[in-house]
Design brief:
This protein is an alpha/beta fold and 150 residues long. 27% of the residues lie in helices and 31% in strands.
Length: 150
């Protein structure tokens, strides 16, 4: 049986600039730092639609909106960060646009995007296609991937 895949990428040039820190790190990653993140979504299907597509890239506006809402000029902080109250104070003072997440890092951002996009694709396409993987790139040297459970 054939399997088809297509990829939609929201590259570094899109300006999904997010700041975060890994407070549990012993390295310099414990400090607040940021990247223009890149998100790459791989979609799979056993059969193509009537246009011979896996998914309609033009129909992914909701996905881009979600990325912007969560990663465009945002400061992402883990819900268990011991300095969370200080980040909340910065938000209250108009210094940052705070997003509280389960945990920070490219792996967790890929997981967040995988969960959201999987739900979105299922709502729009049923079981004809799926999200195979989501890759998040901080820059050319660092990336993380979350893959579909089989």
């Amino acid at each position: 049986m054939a399997r088809f895949f297509s990829i939609k990428k929201y590259g570094h040039e899109r300006g999904l600039s997010a700041a975060f820190r890994q407070w549990r790190a012993d390295s310099h990653c414990k400090f607040l730092h940021g990247y223009s993140l890149e998100f790459e979504f791989e979609f799979g299907a056993h059969e193509l639609d009537e246009r011979n597509w896996v998914v309609d890239f033009g129909g992914l506006k909701e996905l881009e909106s979600w990325l912007r809402k969560n990663f465009d000029h945002k400061t992402l902080v883990a819900s268990d960060d011991p300095k969370l109250s200080e980040f909340k104070s910065m938000e209250e003072n108009g210094i940052i646009d705070l997003i509280i997440v389960e945990s920070t890092g490219a792996e967790m951002f890929a997981k967040m995007a995988m969960e959201y996009s999987t739900k979105l694709i299922a709502e729009n396409y049923g079981d004809r296609c799926w999200v195979e993987s989501v890759t998040v790139r901080e820059h050319g040297a660092n990336s993380a991937k979350c893959k579909r459970k089989i």
